[in-house]
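A favour, since you know our structure tokens better than I do. It will help me judge whether the discrete encoding reads sensibly. The space below this message is yours for that.
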Amino acid sequence: MPAEPSSLSPLQRVGYFAINLVIQGVIQTALALPHRIRVPLMGSLMTRVVGPVTGATKRIRNNLKLTCPDMSDEEIRNMCHAVPNNVGRTLIETYAGRDFVRHANANPPRGDGVSALEQSREEGKPVFLATAHFGNYFAIRANLSERGLRMGSLYRRMKNPYFNAHYVRSISFDNQLMFEQGPSGMRLLVKHLRQGGIIGILHDVHVADGEQLTFFGQPCTTSLAIATMALKYDAAIIPSYGIRAANGLNFDIVLNDPIPHTDPRTMMQALNDDLESMVRNNMEQWFWVHRRWK
């Protein structure tokens, strides 16, 4: 778990504090602009400055060469611009409050998973809305919460404690339940599940102690926790996506068919496959900056 400021060395505290000052300055400057300007501006900043400086552009290129060997150099260059653009837009949207919620609700949710979600709610059964670092995953919560669905979300604390403090406040913009990854957070999450609650959770990250599954034809370690809990508490797992629309500001909220209850490995592989299908139709919207394959 990332450290608290008091446990860091003086040099670490100064470094994290300075980095956070820059980040906050950029965010606050962007928030002073109209939403239709701030969002593409942050996308451009991430593409032209942050991506190359942080090495994100290199990770995108390496991930694509690993998983999509037939992709041309020109296509990879285009992806190295489009992917950070979506990441930058997603970051500032997290801080945009009602402006973001308004755009997230431009379209009603669609897909076979919508009726499955409604049925689970009627029966008082818990639901996992399993999503990924794709499009803007917060758009799902913003859309459904406006329709009266209160859900909990599991989040991972950021390494920079100064950034983490305001980031957590920002992702709690709609007063939803936030569970920090760790023993205490998991206890609260399980309690929410047992009460028939809804949990929004990201499943597309490398987990060191996970099981070896595949994604884009390559081995990747994946946690089986979602499927294990779904089987234990009779919870539906509904693949859920906030796909960025062509105008770059609105979203298409898609809930796919629930994952059939079988065994944890089969269920999590089905989630990986569902996500891969969505990504292949919207390649630039997945966060290829992640170290998904190690």
Observations:
- The longest strand covers residues 236-244.
- The two ends are 20 Å apart (CA to CA).
- The longest helix spans residues 10-31.
- The chain has eleven helices and eight strands.
